[in-house]
Write a structure and sequence with these properties.
30% strand; Jelly Rolls; 7 helices; 2 domains
Length: 393
């Protein structure tokens, strides 16, 4: 294991809860079917649509199926707008799949373009998609409140085999404000961003909130802990850790995972193998590294409610004054449990009592005295809990 350099970390200055007004312009805005849609008719115009196509009044409402009427290099094109978008949005991501029955060797191309009200192009992107596979295509354009047009095109040319029952599925679309952290997490392949997703899910968009929460101290020297590092078993990468290593150049990044990550050799990255449901493993982790204080603890582990609450009760003492403890994926559980972490945090926010069957009386009283504020955020499809520690104990 790599030994981290020690940090003398100054507490993060935080105003008492309720004293600071919320700047709504700072909160992320997401346009998707999981968040909210663009209201009103969008003046949909289409070219060369097959009768089997599925086109909705907004690209963010539901899945689209694009298929051509002709079999000679046809282009299917759908244009929405002009319509108004929130001023914060400067990127659209479309998740697309090339489909055929039966599956063949054709490569279909998807293109997306954003234009102003007069038709002048603001941004364009595309991808070639092998049959049976999915791609995320992101169009970036200048932000600022404006009326825009969005055009989605499916190109069925340069075919290896004759066109027959081919279609391009635009199964998900979202609009958001991109940032350096969003781009880093997308590039490393983390599902905390806006283009990567697990299984048949959708991007969580956590990075939109993390940019707001983290940017004020990104150049500081501090310690960060992430629980849960890769969804693959056996693991093959540490996507988010690589992003943190770049975004926080002066931090030591600790990782904790039940799998073996001894293959990771990164500067100021330390990974401990253990079970987050075990207080013994969590305590051994802290003892091994001298009980470090963390500016940020981020739980992206098993997502089981009991595991999340045991980890919180054990590790919150190690969060530095003013620091953050974040729990991801509180709305999904691998097996039925009650209460969920989202329920526990909502109850605490209302009553200031921390009640959980997985937390001891002593741990609960400490959490009640040490937690300053709780935010439950849902940037897109899944909730996260953000707990800020009091400045003074």
């Amino acid at each position: 294991m790599t030994t981290p350099r020690p940090h003398g970390v100054a507490p993060l200055a935080v105003r008492p809860a309720g004293e600071e007004e919320v700047d709504l312009a700072e909160r992320p805005v997401v346009v998707s079917r999981n968040a909210f849609g663009i209201a009103g008719p969008l003046n949909v115009n289409a070219e060369n649509l097959n009768a089997w196509c599925n086109i909705h009044g907004a690209p963010f409402a539901a899945s689209h199926i694009l298929a051509p009427n002709e079999d000679d290099g046809a282009v299917v094109r759908v244009t929405y707008g002009p319509f108004d978008i929130p001023a914060q949005i400067n990127a659209f991501t479309f998740i697309c799949a090339s489909q055929a029955a039966p599956r063949n060797r054709n490569m279909l191309r998807f293109e997306a373009a954003v234009a102003d009200e007069g038709g002048a192009e603001l941004g364009q992107a595309g991808a070639a998609i092998p049959c049976g596979e999915e791609r995320a295509v992101t169009v970036r354009f200048p932000g600022g409140r404006q009326r825009i047009r969005v055009t989605l095109s499916a190109l069925f040319d340069d075919l290896v085999v004759p066109l027959a029952h081919e279609s391009l599925l635009v199964r998900y679309a979202l609009g958001y404000r991109s940032s350096e952290l969003v781009e880093l997490l997308n590039q490393t392949g983390s599902d905390k961003g806006t283009t990567v997703y697990a299984g048949g899910g959708v991007p969580h968009c956590y990075a939109l909130e993390y940019e707001r929460l983290f940017r004020g101290f990104r150049q500081d020297a501090f310690n960060m802990l992430e629980i849960g590092l890769d969804v693959a078993s056996p693991p093959a990468d540490v996507p988010s850790v690589r992003a943190w290593r770049t975004y926080f150049p002066n931090a030591v990044v600790y990782g904790f995972d039940i799998e073996d990550f001894s293959f990771v050799q990164e500067r100021d990255v330390v990974i401990f193998r253990g079970n987050q449901a075990s207080r013994g493993d969590l305590s051994r982790f802290l003892e091994t590294y001298g009980s470090p204080a963390f500016r940020v603890v981020l739980d992206d582990g098993s997502h089981a409610a009991s595991h999340q609450q045991i980890s919180l009760a054990t590790l919150f003492r190690q969060v530095e004054p003013g620091g953050l403890y974040i729990v991801e994926d509180m709305s999904w559980q691998p097996f039925p449990e009650s209460p969920t972490t989202a329920q526990v945090l909502r109850n605490f926010a209302e009553s200031r009592r921390f009640e959980s069957p997985y937390v001891t009386e002593e741990e609960a009283r400490y959490l009640e005295s040490a937690i300053d504020t709780v935010e439950i955020l849902k940037p897109n499809d899944s909730e996260i809990g953000v707990l800020r520690k009091r400045d003074q104990q």
